[in-house]
């Protein structure tokens, strides 16, 4: 019985992580800017509180984990800026770097928040908040399409 439960947990963990891994999220801003410059793609910076922000978790399910976004992501550089409450999720150094980005690009501290940038770090547009009652990601899809089409 223990082996069956362990096996099921392993499969579930693999499925959850594989969804996120398919998107190729970067976590270093300077790397994202360099990739953006090299590939001529805009950056999509995603501010999230991965372990405490319910709308962030819903946005991941309704938007980021969809096949449509997976297709859109081929035309953008993805940068995840996580501000978790648990200290074991990201390193102290990464949290410090993320808080610096939060102070510069997300001064209101809204979560979730996505910001489109060019390779120099200039803001091209922003799309914040997500209604946990409506769960309608259409404006996020429109935002990303607009950024891709106008870059």
What does this structure look like?
- With 151 residues, the chain is α+β, with helices and mostly antiparallel strands.
- It is 50% helix and 15% strand.
- A 4-stranded mixed β-sheet has the order 2-1-3-4, with helices on both faces.
- The model is unreliable at 3-20 (pLDDT under 50).
How are helices and strands ordered from N to C? Answer: HHEHHEHEEH
Q: What is the total domain count?
A: 1
Structural class: alpha+beta
Mean pLDDT: 89
Low-confidence residue ranges: 3-20
The percent range for helix content is 40-55%
**Roughly what fraction of the amino acids lie in strands?**
15-25%
Reading off the top of the CATH hierarchy, the class is best stated as Alpha Beta
CATH arch. level architecture: 3-Layer(aba) Sandwich
CATH fold type? Glutaredoxin
From the spread of the alpha carbons, the general shape counts as globular
- Note the gap between the termini: 54 Å
CATH superfamily: Glutaredoxin
**What gyration radius follows from the Cα positions, in whole Å?**
16 Å
Largest sheet: 4 strands, mixed
Strand order of the largest sheet: 2-1-3-4
Q: Topology of this protein?
A:
Blueprint: H1 2-21, H2 29-39, E1 43-48, H3 54-64, H4 67-72, E2 77-82, H5 92-105, E3 113-117, E4 123-128, H6 138-150
Parallel strand pairs: 1-2
Antiparallel strand pairs: 1-3, 3-4
In short:
This protein is α+β, with helices and mostly antiparallel strands. The chain contains six helices and four strands, in the order ααβααβαββα.
